[in-house]
Amino acid sequence: MATILHIETSTDVCSVAVSEDGQVIFHKEDHSGPNHAEKLGIYVDEALSFTDNHAIPFDAVAVSCGPGSYTGLRIGVSMAKGICYARDLKLIAMPTTELLCVPVLLREAAEEGALLCPMLDARRMEVYAAIYDRSLRPVREIGADIVDETTYQEYLDKQPVYFFGNGAKKCIDAINHPNARLIEGIEPLAKWMQPLAEKRFLTEQFEDVAYFVPYYLKDFVAKPSKKLL
């Protein structure tokens, strides 16, 4: 087991958490944002002070790598990389879409065979979305979608699909399918990162601190026509 600092800045919410041996022992959240430039450094300092005062050494830093807010991701990843350099720690990256699934799996009784579709707002009827099964195996990788009634029809015609995240509410009426389920109030938070980060730590899925970049700088996905903030 490991002690991991978690940083999440992919949406307007800024959050930091610390987990030790599978338990969250510290977390701070600000929902009044976007205030990442103002709040993140304060929360990280508090987290580091907490662990230093309790003589708890860190093993890794986990950071949400997107998709999401351009500015938020840049601030979060820069902070995570700086701490890794300063303290010689491993870096763990976590897709925001995968992170969004954690509270759904923990708190919701999803129907047998249902799929999970986390959505991040990209303005108008555009979202970044992925589709997972209940074991968090990707059924469809992260993509940039312009949502209408046919966008997810191939999945909806076969089983229930749960839509959530800050892009889901605006899309549910357009999807308009009896198998579409909307879950409101789901946000990517640092305290939900623990099980995913722990798994990556145990399987040594680490990033190269020198060359790692967040999602918006990667070339493997087409972007919506409107930039994220």
Concise description?
By secondary structure, this protein is an alpha/beta fold. Helices cover 28% and strands 28% of the residues. Helix 1 packs parallel to helix 2 (70-87).
Enumerate the spans where pLDDT stays under 50 for 5 or more consecutive residues: 219-229
Give the strand order, joined by hyphens, for the main sheet: 3-2-1-4-5
The strand count comes to 10
Beta percentage is 25-35%
Provide the structure class: alpha/beta
Overall spatial form: globular
Which series of helices and strands comes N to C? EEEHEHEHEEEHEHEH
Q: What gap, in angstroms, lies between the N and C termini? A: 36 Å
Number of helices: 6
Largest sheet: 5 strands, mixed
Tell me the radius of gyration: 17 Å
Instruction: Give average pLDDT, whole number.
Output: 92
